[in-house]
Design a protein that fits this description.
By secondary structure, the protein is mainly β. 5% of the residues lie in helices and 64% in strands. The two termini are 40 Å apart.
Length: 808
């Protein structure tokens, strides 16, 4: 009964709390007594004019500053076309302050045309996250969501497209604040079909507070898509053609209409092209030498889009609906060749396995969200109801032909086919409440998530062109998971220099995995997981002087096994090389500590330490039955320790040249003992550098140089990888009154982004590399639609740099 009792009690308690906060409010009008909408307001201290908080006025001209400490202040108002306004002194002691109506005066000098340009830094380091601003950067052109993550500071994508942050695996990927319940190949396929032109920014949250679900050891990567908040109608159309070894292209568009009552927005994209992947491994096991080469080509066609509506019920309440979908079809063909010899004489080939695979896959995703939000000066409430379904199906044809060393005579032949299908349905309800309390902010909420996934694996042996199902290899796997969560958090400013936050999240997990065999004697009992977990979090920051800030954060998190890695099916490159899941995987628990320092509101240094128990990782081992075969499996490490250092350095060399540099250093210590030779004792260092430099070449041209370098390190538990790097160039020019934006880019000029490395575990010693179509030239055209003059409500007011200092 605990899962049904503690959440309503927790949430009901939070709703009953009544807090007192200090607010400063009023309204803004012009001399004609008309409201001035969306003006920018700066609350400053009277004693030294230092910035305390930034706010944006509402459509009716009203405004408010929330959670303000006692003191003496004044308000500075900025709005294009009006002279700056400075209010009288405001004494805030024991009561909220209403400053009444502030009247702005128009500038005496009117310009015939005003061009407002909002320039965001490439990377913003904020108190709770790092923001990678994709929109507007030239070198994002022609890219997709997965490759953008390779460029994001502090983020690494390994040889199997697994994502890690600050050296930690177990990252959750969100789209617009909603989790994408995929991992591995399914997640990489999804991200590869997301155009860079659709993405506005990427938020990297390394230590989420109790408001966020506790899943994800390395935190959250939230990919924020474009959503125009301009009043009136606007939109754009983009097209990109990219050429590497093969060509890819996309066509996308977005539109927005907004007035005082509704906001309708949407976008859609088409993707088409061909990709390749080149793998090579040399392995020693059981006195046998294996040399495997695998070259695959994949042609894809995809479409994705979303449509949303926000309806403003009144000044405080908004109702929203959002529908999104993705559908992708791909045809896959590969040439797989394995040379087999005795280890004592690797030049004398015994036989050669040729396994030329072909497959086709269909992947579909549909999601719907209902949202209600209510906000006043001291309280807010937000509620989300979500439903999502994922439908993935693949069909594989795989002949396994063994030839003599001269590739003339066939020794044996085994033709196989297999079909996989995964149906995932997700239901979610979430409610969050915040209010001022005792000079701080109290938050509370609850969340319920239900996941149902049905997996089917049908394996066939083909005899005389007739497929016959192999019931010893075929099975069904159903996984069900419910998570019931509730949280409380509180944050407060203590005096002028200290800020504190603390939270506790409770999650009850009820899950089961049921493997159904087609042969009764192979039937296995269901695996059940039922556990209650507590996840405390907290932080403290200290600012001894105006330009210096220190912070210390702690968080405990969980990483439950992904649905696909629980699935025990065998997916093959050939019958000598395959991968399988593990339904007995346990969730991993991590404790993260981060110590940070920021200078001048933009230069930052972060030290991080994490200790993970039962770390979920990939392991490469010899097959226990066939001495020639090896496979990739999943298991739990005993412990993993990671020590990390991150340095972020934005630089403005001149008015026309600015740059961003970020440096990461990690030390990883992996430990596990599975008995016999199956032991893990790995210590590995890794460092990587990312940079992007932008050059403003006159009024119409802009150029960018970007790149990254990754030193040696470890992926998963045992795979030690070698250094790799990438250098990218881009140039941009605008035409047709700046409506048409043309960009030309070259990515991975020296073709060094591919990986190579070494693994030694349980008697299997492997070296290998992987390459893909990373060196590409891309041309992109983007054309803005609609009345650009309407965009006056979304403007650069010249105080972006100041507002970023507040960390809003």
């Amino acid at each position: 009964m605990i899962k049904f009792l503690f959440i309503p009690v927790l949430f009901g308690f939070s709703l009953c709390l009544l807090g007192q906060g200090y607010t400063v409010g009023g309204s803004i009008k012009n001399k004609k007594d008309e409201p001035v909408s969306f003006a920018t307001l700066l609350l400053k201290k009277s004693i030294d004019s230092s910035l305390v908080k930034v706010a944006v006025g509402q459509d009716d001209g009203s405004f408010s500053f929330l959670s303000i400490s006692p003191g003496t202040y004044f308000i500075h108002v900025k709005y294009i076309g009006f002279t700056d306004f400075f209010s009288n002194s405001i004494e805030l002691i024991n009561n909220n302050a209403d400053v009444g109506t502030l009247v702005l005066s128009e500038n005496s000098t009117q310009l015939a045309e005003v061009s407002v340009v909002a320039l965001r830094p490439i990377v913003e380091v904020k108190a709770d996250k790092t923001v990678f601003n994709v929109q507007g950067t030239i070198n994002a052109v022609g890219d997709n969501g997965l490759n953008l993550l390779r460029k994001a500071p502090g983020v690494m994508v390994d040889n199997n497209n697994n994502i890690s942050v600050l050296g930690r695996s177990g990252v959750l990927v969100y789209i617009d604040g909603r989790r994408i319940p995929m991992s591995g190949q399914e997640l990489s396929n999804y991200l590869e079909n997301l155009n860079a032109e659709q993405i506005d920014r990427i938020d990297i949250i390394t230590n989420p507070g109790s408001k966020y679900e506790a899943q994800g050891n390395a935190g959250i990567i939230d990919i924020r898509l474009k959503k125009d908040s301009n009043v009136g109608g606007s939109g754009s159309i983009s097209s990109t053609v990219s050429q590497g070894r093969y060509a890819t292209g996309n066509l996308s568009g977005n539109g927005n209409y907004r007035n005082k009552k509704i906001n309708i927005f949407g976008n859609a994209a088409l993707n088409k092209g061909t990709r390749f992947n080149d793998l090579f491994f040399q392995s020693y096991q059981n006195q046998i030498f294996l040399e495997e080469s695998h070259l695959s080509n994949s042609s894809f066609n995809g479409v994705n889009g979303r449509l949303g509506l926000d309806y403003y019920l009144n000044k405080k309440s908004t109702f929203g609906i959002l529908i999104s979908g993705l559908y992708n079809v791909s045809d896959h063909g590969s040439i797989n060749k394995t040379l087999i010899a005795k280890q004592i004489d690797i030049n004398n080939i015994d036989s050669i396995l040729i396994a030329n695979n072909s497959s086709d896959a269909n992947r579909g995703h549909t999601a719907a969200n209902l949202n209600y939000s209510w906000t006043d000066k001291t309280k807010s409430f937000n509620m989300d109801l979500d439903y999502g379904l994922f439908r993935n199906q693949s069909d594989y044809i795989q002949p396994n032909n063994y030839y003599t060393a001269d590739l003339i005579s066939i020794l044996t032949s085994n033709l196989t086919e297999y079909q996989t299908r995964a149906d995932i349905d997700i239901f979610s309800f979430k409610a969050d409440y915040e209010q001022d309390l005792l000079g701080g902010k109290l938050g509370a909420g609850t969340k319920w998530t239900k996941v149902e996934t049905a997996n089917q694996f049908l394996f066939y042996n083909v005899f005389d062109a007739i497929p016959v199902r192999n019931d010893r290899r075929s099975n069904l796997f159903d996984y069900s998971e419910s998570v019931y969560a509730g949280y409380l958090n509180y944050k407060k400013k203590l005096g002028e220099r200290w800020n504190i936050s603390a939270g506790l999240r409770t999650e009850y997990t009820d899950a089961s995995g049921d493997l159904s065999a087609f042969i009764p004697e192979l039937e296995e009992p269901a695996v059940l997981f039922n556990y209650l977990s507590l996840f405390p979090s907290g932080g403290i920051s200290y600012s001894p002087a105006k330009k210096h800030s220190y912070s210390l954060q702690y968080g405990r998190r969980i990483n439950r096994p992904d649905y696909n890695v629980l699935n025990p099916f065998k997916e093959q490159l050939s019958e000598l090389s395959y991968s399988s899941g593990n339904k007995f995987l346990k969730p991993e628990i991590v404790n993260n500590i981060e110590l940070g320092y920021t200078y001048n509101f933009k230069y930052s240094v972060k030290l991080a330490y994490s200790l993970t128990t039962d770390q979920i990782t990939r392991l490469m081992s010899p097959d226990p039955i066939d001495p020639r075969a090896n496979y990739i499996s999943w298991d739990n490490l005993a412990t993993q320790e990671i020590y990390g250092l991150n340095v972020s350095l934005p630089m403005d060399f001149t008015k026309w040249w600015n740059a961003y540099f970020t440096f990461n250093f990690n030390l990883t210590n992996n430990q596990a003992n599975y008995g016999g030779n199956a032991q893990v004792d790995v210590q590995a260092y890794n460092f990587n550098l990312f940079h992007q430099q932008t050059f403003q070449l006159g009024k119409k041209w802009k150029a960018e140089v970007s790149g990254w370098y990754s030193g040696p390190g470890v992926w998963g538990g045992i795979f030690l990888f070698d250094p790799c790097y990438s250098l990218n160039l881009g140039i941009q020019r605008k035409f047709l009154s700046e409506r048409l934006n043309a960009r030309l880019t070259v990515n991975d000029i020296f073709y060094q982004a591919w990986w190579s490395g070494y693994s030694s575990f349980n008697g299997l010693h492997t070296t290998g590399y992987g390459k893909w179509d990373s060196r590409r030239v891309a041309l992109s055209l983007n054309y803005d639609l609609g009345n650009k003059n309407i965009k006056s409500r979304k403007r650069s007011t010249g105080i972006e740099s100041e507002s970023k200092r507040v960390g809003e």
